[in-house]
Amino acid sequence: KDLCIDEFKNFRALVIGASRGLGELTAKCLGFGGASMLLTYARGKNDILNVLDDIQKYNNNVSITSLDVTKMQDKDFDAINEFKPTHVFYYATPFIFNGTKNKFSKEIYKNFRTYYLDAFEILVKNLAMLKTNIYFLYPSSVAVEEKPPDMLEYSQAKKEGEDLCLKLENEHSNLNILCPRLPRLETDQTVSLSAVKNEDPIKILDIIRSMNNKDQF
Prior knowledge:
The chain has 7 helices and 8 strands, in the order E-H-E-H-E-H-E-H-E-E-H-H-E-E-H. The protein has helices spanning 21-32, 45-55, 76-83, 106-128, 143-146, 152-171, 204-210, and strands spanning 12-16, 36-41, 62-66, 87-90, 134-137, 140-141, 175-178, 181-182. The strands form 2 sheets. A 6-stranded parallel sheet has the order 3-2-1-4-5-7, sandwiched between helices.
């Protein structure tokens, strides 16, 4: 099924980490589908401006704001709270493929925790105070079950992230957190010199569509 121009017109979508990768693809799918959007970026200002330019060719209801999830302060939530999102897509991440085979690094693990647990929990608890129904997409990974020997820290942090999602959803009745274990999708994060099978990232569209059910709460 092709993407319809007004398919996501009821979305007010906050896309965290929209400058590249799955965040960029999600923003473009939502934008073409008519969503109102607030896109965040940490360092890739030129990248996000290019994304914004592409989306504004068919949707003007989009704005951008800088956000480093590892250093969030109250003022960082002003634009987010004013936007009042109905849907939040969380793609904030450090570089994934920096582990050593069969060796667990506490430093790398701690960095993943900062993004996948600490920052996400701060964001969710802040938005929960808006007292409106909000759908979250927190992408997990098949690495949780496959446990690649050079991604031990990533796999552990993502598993704990899944547990956190369940905990937060149980604590806040106005939140619905979708936490799919995504296969390795082809993005700039997964570019590899070795022969590794990456799947088509457009699969993210099916996940976005699954969040268009207004009766989940």
